[in-house]
Amino acid sequence: MELSPFVIRLAVLAMPGILASSLYRTLRGVPDKRNWEVATRIFLFSFVSYVLYAMIAPMVTMIFRMVTGSAGSEGASANDAILQALYDQSMPLEWSQIFWASMIAVVLAFAACGVKHYGLPNRLGVLLRVTRAIGDEDIWEYFHRRSDVDWVFVRDHKLGLVYYGSVRAYSDSGRDRELVLTDVDVSSNDDGTYLYSASVIYVSRRSHELTLEVPPNDEDEGDKVENEKKTAKETNNASEPRQEH
What we know:
This protein is of the alpha+beta class. The protein folds into 2 domains: 5-118, no CATH class; 143-218, SH3 type barrels. The chain is built from 8 helices and 5 strands. It has a 5-stranded antiparallel β-sheet with strand order 4-3-2-1-5, with no helix packed on it. Strand 1 (151-156) and strand 2 form a beta hairpin.
């Protein structure tokens, strides 16, 4: 299959979007499921990157003129140049514009991933009381993105075991739930009997075969232990017979 010059030029001009889309997918760790979503994301990243470049380039040119006193390079017509290069094959590609737009696209990918990770649109919607939805992510993913999820009890209902360890990796939403735990203590789920320890454990189960529990933080657990010791001490003192002098 021979590619037309138009398709080749389009692919080159879409490099900022392709780069940003690939980086965004890698940072998110979620595989693409629909081709039209990938195409839309590439288009949006490319479009926004070139628009931002067209806005930033004149300011950079102005600063360059002020510092050096030279004319510098014009960047106000960046979008026009990109559009002309798209349909006019006789017009050479501005590689510098594509390069700087790609650098902007990288920043956009990190920013978009941060917005998605922290669920900023949904947080704003909840703040404005227009929604209660946490977003379009699976509850499995939402659970692991909580800041207090580190050390967890994982109840393996298939094998009747309990794993207590630190979550180092988890799978994306799917049929199977995969976990990588470190510094793991394994116990029986029936009576809590300690069985063994392992430095790393990989667990893969169906969604209904696992239950994850987050223990209280160390401060609350420490207060609880101290209160129990204090209560036990007071009980022992009260039960001791007084000696008559």
